[in-house]
Design goal:
Layout: E1 7-16, E2 19-26, E3 38-42, H1 52-55, H2 57-70, E4 73-80, H3 81-97, E5 107-113, E6 123-126, H4 131-139, E7 144-151, H5 161-177, E8 181-187, H6 189-192, H7 195-207, H8 216-228, H9 231-236, E9 241-245, H10 250-256, H11 261-265, E10 267-268, E11 271-276, H12 282-296, H13 315-319, H14 329-340, H15 357-365, H16 373-384, H17 391-396, H18 402-408
Parallel strand pairs: 1-4, 4-5, 6-7, 6-9, 7-8, 9-11
Antiparallel strand pairs: 1-2, 2-3, 3-8, 10-11
Helix pairs in contact: 2-8, 4-12, 15-18
């Protein structure tokens, strides 16, 4: 049980138009994991009509990672009853998943409210503009009522307003072109949380005994924050279902020790959250969803898959209006996946630049490219789809890629799996 003084107390909500603020009171050493005491959420609609028990969810959700990992309780004025119940179930599952970490948080709500707002047939998608969330929307397009995009995350930092506004404009244009409403939420949570101290104290126990990985060990915990930020949008749009794209297929999830139980368990009001596209690998999404859309729609499909585009060293790329750096491991891997199915990466927000499949081949062969288990799965997925490559893709031989895929079909990718002391390629799935 958490010490009584080890607590995060959420103060009264201050709602002004589209902005909602909440001040935190920290105790018991939890100050180490915060750089500030005031959380703020901003939406593209007035927040006042939303019930406070729903408006509190984003703030509870953003401090949950600290409380769960460091072992602290949360005190809040009012909270949705179903959210509180489901969060405790998530915590139980997280404790089973990583028994070496506390996961002993109590959420003490002065008042619990049962919310009923959903209308049958109304479905939302948590949308980032990336390959996975775009595929989820396109595959479920006829059922989707709204898209939700969240700014202030690691890959969409609000400190780069120009980049964030460009992404918003592209997302709004994409939504309009496809006949669906889109809402934008913004949060300062990553400015308030001290991520470096969380990483320093908990990255090792979160990684678990079965694998050494780069990103996925955090996903089960921090996905709660991302989903929680969508709660006011879900209530406003009266959503029955909120879909979150799965980066991996169900088979790979099991192999990597990631169950996806957070979105399968978390609830609020009468909304259900679903993990979508577990039946598709990344290459299958390109082949079965992205490629058909591009064949039927002119103007391309901008995909925002690159994280390093946000770094200071890529300021010139952003000024040129590029979505992706086209140089990092994740960009190169995605570009190869597109080429494999005969899609010119330039139609999806990349540039050819210095791209060389021969150079990528050399880097794999001499092991200058090293990756972890999750990244190996992406490369293996690509390799397994070479032999059933569309004939048109072979005929086009875009960017002279045929020889690379012929070579990759026979190459043993496990040679590039990182040992315990080797640095990885830095690619984010």
């Amino acid at each position: 049980m958490s010490p009584a003084s080890r607590r995060i107390a959420l103060g009264d909500l201050e709602t002004r138009g589209v902005k909602v603020r909440c001040r935190l009171k920290l105790g018991g050493g939890l100050e180490r994991y915060f750089r500030g005491h005031e959380l703020e959420m901003s939406y593209d609609f007035p927040a006042d009509p939303i019930d406070p028990s729903i408006l509190y969810i984003p703030f509870v959700a953003t401090v949950l990672p600290v409380a769960f990992l460091a072992g602290g309780d949360i005190a809040v004025r009012v909270l949705d009853a179903e959210y509180l119940r489901s969060v405790m179930l998530v915590q139980d599952k997280l404790k089973e998943w990583r028994p070496g970490l506390p996961f002993c948080t109590k959420i003490m709500a002065d008042k619990r409210v049962t919310n009923v707002f959903a209308e049958d047939g109304r479905c939302g998608v948590l949308y980032s503009g990336g390959l996975d969330s775009t595929s989820t929307f396109l595959a479920n397009k006829e059922h989707v009522s709204a898209l939700v995009m969240v700014g202030g995350t690691e890959d969409l930092p609000l400190r780069d307003r120009h980049y964030w506004e460009r992404i918003r404009d592209l997302a709004a244009s994409f939504a309009k072109r496809n006949g669906v409403v889109i809402h934008f939420a913004e949060s300062n949570w990553l400015d308030v949380l001290n991520a470096s101290h969380l990483t320093q104290d908990f990255a090792v126990p979160l990684a678990g005994p079965r694998r050494r990985d780069d990103v996925t060990n955090w996903e089960e915990v921090f996905r709660m924050a991302l989903l929680g930020m969508c709660a006011p949008v879900a209530a406003r749009e009266r959503l029955r279902t909120l879909l979150m794209a799965s980066t991996y297929s169900a088979e790979v999830l099991e192999a990597l020790g990631i169950s996806g139980f957070v979105e399968k368990t978390l609830r609020w009001g009468d909304l259900a959250i679903g993990r979508d596209s577990e039946d598709l690998t990344r290459q299958q999404k390109i082949r079965n969803v992205i490629a058909p859309y591009l064949r039927e729609n002119e103007g391309g499909l901008p995909l925002r898959v690159c994280h390093p585009i946000n770094l200071e060293r890529n300021r010139k790329l952003r000024q040129r209006g590029l979505l992706n750096c086209s140089e990092c491991p994740k960009c190169r891997r995605t570009m190869l996946g597109l080429l494999l199915d005969g899609i010119d990466p330039r139609s999806c927000g990349f540039e050819q630049g210095s791209f060389s499949s021969e150079k990528i081949r050399q880097q794999l062969a001499n092991r200058s490219t090293i990756f972890t288990g999750s990244l190996l799965e992406f490369w293996t997925d690509m390799k397994l789809h070479i032999n059933d490559r569309p004939s048109l893709a072979t005929e086009l031989n875009l960017w002279n890629s045929n020889s690379f895929f012929d070579w990759l079909a026979t190459y043993d990718l496990t040679r590039n799996l990182a040992t315990s002391n080797e640095p990885v390629d830095g690619g984010i799935p």
